[in-house]
């Protein structure tokens, strides 16, 4: 397998609004990030993926961009950005920027022009259609509730917005749109950025005719995903982008691709196809969603997690490359969702880190994950800020009259603001995030869970993550070894091996508060073993053939 720096790297995601505020306005900013680069250096990460910092009216916290070449005022200036990237590079940290080009803000100059008249030169930059029998052009539902179409008085037509109505979809069929996007990418690459995380990039090509989706009973709109995800021209567009832009730089790319299967994942990431380096698949974070989508919550099972992760590990092996993540700014906190954020918070956070970082692929750490930060339960919906959450609440309670308590439980479990409460730096007011009033409240558990406490405690999640990252630098097998699931049917233990030449890793993780027995399968033998990492004290002499695991225990052995 070809060696690549981005396969060997660990990525840290910064959600700038919630990371660190330097000027007391309650909103994280670039100078705040600069002040915390030594912290990231100490953790040992190689790459920062920075969620959008471009000019934006913030309908969706920066994922609605009104100027791709300008920095959002709340975040600072271009000079601050230049200092930030220089200071990252000084510390050997690369910078991956978010590329949001499925849609712009409705306040982007292109859209302002586009909506003026049907013959405006920018009209065709977006997807406009006349209504059908007094209704929207089709029945697609927006990701943020309601119709995916908005009627515009000025010209009497509707425009498509797969997300909020302030996020009109760009028309990628138009070569001028593509050229503008490629020029903008070159602008940032020439300023030194080391790659892009591409927002919902598998939605840029829509099926011609924009056919209706199938409406589920009791619903007004339909999920149109099959007509806009992995659409007919998406690979052609990405190959063009690669040819025109990416191939000219040594950068890393990761596509956000909801609904992607491993077969499609290979199409995006097979190096011979010259598209992307890796994609974010969603199957493992959709295990607790029912047919009704994200808010149709059901328990996930370890059996399904094994099936899903193993499928991705095996199917991409030698063909594409995986990205590894358990949370990000759109997902609940990993320790609350997959671990135990009560009694065994520290143990389970470390176990989850082990589970993920030992797989094949590039691991992503979401800010605060390295502290074992948890979900939050704010008492009132007024404490929430996320447009997806608020639109859902509004639709279900105000329009459908559903029970507020049930809806709040859904928000506590799945709401995106779980991940967006401010980074917990210390035990001072507002967790040291800001000296002002934070744009969203801090999680009340910040006195116990914060970076200062974690850095001082050698047994913290932080120090454990630091070690996970260092191990990756010391053992090629962690990056390049092949993966095999063992103990497939065990209901509590997730265990797997990695193999490279004569070396083998055995990764043992207990996904429960119980104390199950791990038994090494007979086909695995060894003459020497080395414990690489564990989240409990382990007697080095203990043999591997039978181990009684402690709650949420994790161990990694290297065998020879
Ligand atoms: C995915 C982003 O991660 C999410 O935060 C955003 O709301 C949508 N794409 C729309 O840009």
How would you explain this protein's 3D organization?
The protein has 560 residues and is an alpha/beta fold. The protein has three domains: 7-102 and 176-201 and 280-309 and 316-465, Alpha-Beta Barrel (TIM Barrel); 109-160, Oligo-1,6-glucosidase, domain 2, CATH 3.90.400; 482-559, Immunoglobulin-like (Sandwich). Helices cover 28% and strands 17% of the residues. It contains 17 helices and 22 strands. The protein has helices at 5-8, 30-35, 37-43, 78-90, 109-114, 175-190, 225-228, 234-244, 262-269, 302-316, 334-338, 345-357, 387-399, 404-414, 451-456, 461-474, 476-480; strands at residues 11-14, 47-50, 54-55, 67-71, 94-99, 128-129, 149-152, 157-160, 195-198, 252-256, 278-280, 289-290, 293-297, 323-324, 362-366, 482-486, 493-500, 503-510, 517-519, 529-534, 546-548, 554-559. The strands form six sheets. An eight-stranded parallel β-sheet has the order 11-10-9-5-2-1-15-14. A five-stranded antiparallel β-sheet has the order 16-17-18-22-20. A hairpin with a 2-residue loop joins strand 17 (493-500) and strand 18 (503-510). Helix 9 packs parallel to helix 10. It is globular and about 75 Å long. The model has no long low-confidence stretch (mean pLDDT 98). The protein binds 1-deoxynojirimycin. The site of 1-deoxynojirimycin has 9 residues, from loops.
